[in-house]
Fold NAD(P)H-hydrate epimerase.
Amino acid sequence: MTLKAISAKDAASLDKDLMEMGGWSLDQLMELAGLSVSQAVWKVHSLSAGKNVLVVCGPGNNGGDGLVAARHLAQYGYNPSVYYPKEGKNELYQRLKTQLQNLSVPFITDFPAALKQSHFLVDAIFGFSFGGPLRDPFPSIISQIEQSSIPVLSVDAPSSWDIQSGPPKEGPGAKFMPQALISLSAPKPCVKFYQGRHFIGGRFLSKDITDKYGLNLPAYPGIEQVLEVEVDTEGRL
Amino acid sequence: MTLKAISAKDAASLDKDLMEMGGWSLDQLMELAGLSVSQAVWKVHSLSAGKNVLVVCGPGNNGGDGLVAARHLAQYGYNPSVYYPKEGKNELYQRLKTQLQNLSVPFITDFPAALKQSHFLVDAIFGFSFGGPLRDPFPSIISQIEQSSIPVLSVDAPSSWDIQSGPPKEGPGAKFMPQALISLSAPKPCVKFYQGRHFIGGRFLSKDITDKYGLNLPAYPGIEQVLEVEVDTEGRL
């Protein structure tokens, strides 16, 4: 079975459909997306492999998914910390930050030091709406992640990658290949350049929506919010 | 270990704290509460035991938790239907209804017929804010559930029970003893009159909050949103 990818344009339209016609609030969608991210972390990096998880959040909804994931990781017994160099202005992001502060999750400012002390990194910097190029401070952040040996789970897309054409030809991100990727709702086209463990998350689509966008998602198992899928050796979905 | 119960007054105050100081929206809290309800259903009534789950929703937040649970149950492969005789006016409830309609979950009106066709019932009629007495149409609904042999999971409290003093001495609910109960956040005092499987759900409290209300919740296992606890044979927590 070949999973169909959804374009950035269609992914934006799908989110709009969910909120304008589907009755969903951003709070709900982000809660379930972030929950699925936290479950993917649990699958690829058990507590016994090291509790220090650094969640790097970008300024948009991908970063919001990361904030929610960090909260659930704290509940699971990890010691998450959050690096959030360009905070989103949406009041939801500020509320998510408050929730984390009430769980004593630190918001760090010294990224190189935090990178050294962490066992795992969640890349929640940019998602399907990334249009490039990277702006400061993100080129340096991506370079540091790329040069570090820390295992990474990327949310929706490896940050710095073009959503359609994949990794940049040179510069920060050209050699960025996270150990794990969680595609939210459905894979994005750049996944064909990806090699590693691949999960689908965001268990909230209705048949009307999967039909409208021609998605052919396999069934989630049991009560899980996350689904591991195979990427074949030719890099196709 | 004896679990401490939280009074109705403190439970209301805890919710207020979460929303006014904790940064939580009702959308988020209800999503996680309803998710935990759906996971408790999964534990007490597997898909193979019969997919027809009737979710009976009251007009307030308990009913909202039921609406969210019904949505997750549909995603798990159950065939939920919803009985919602007094719809809440909050726009959130209407959005939750839209989400269910988009999953083709039926809102039934013939309760006696639906009761006969169902394999399991979720009682999301009244929660900790129930002050009695039951008003129409709920006395008849409770009596029908009580007289039926259908297994029931109650959300937060068996509906019709006084939150402090338990089952009514006579009339509808006097002999209502659901097979399972999920206490949201923490058990309510009436749980000392309860005999059956008992779960805790709503994995979102911070230490500040559990300290403030003197709660001594056991740890949730792994990534689960629900925790089964023992009720000892003397009916204490």
